[in-house]
Amino acid sequence: MHNIIKLIRPHQYLKNGFVWLGIMFAQNRTLTDIVHVGLVFLAFCAAASCVYVFNDIFDVQADRLHPVKRHRPIASGTVSIPTAWWLTGFLALLAFSMATRVGWAAVAFIVLYLLINIAYSLRLKHVVILDVFIISTGFMLRILAGTLGVDIAPSQWLLLTGLMLTLFLGFAKRRAELLMLENSGQANHANIRRVLDDYSPVVLDQLTGITAACTILSYGLYTVSPETVRVHGTQALFYTLPFVIYGMFRYLYLLHHHARGGDTAKDLMTDPHLIITGIGWLAITLTVLKTH
Question: For 222-233, how does the pLDDT look when each residue is reduced to its tens digit (9 = 90+)?
Answer without folding.
Answer: 999 998 888 888
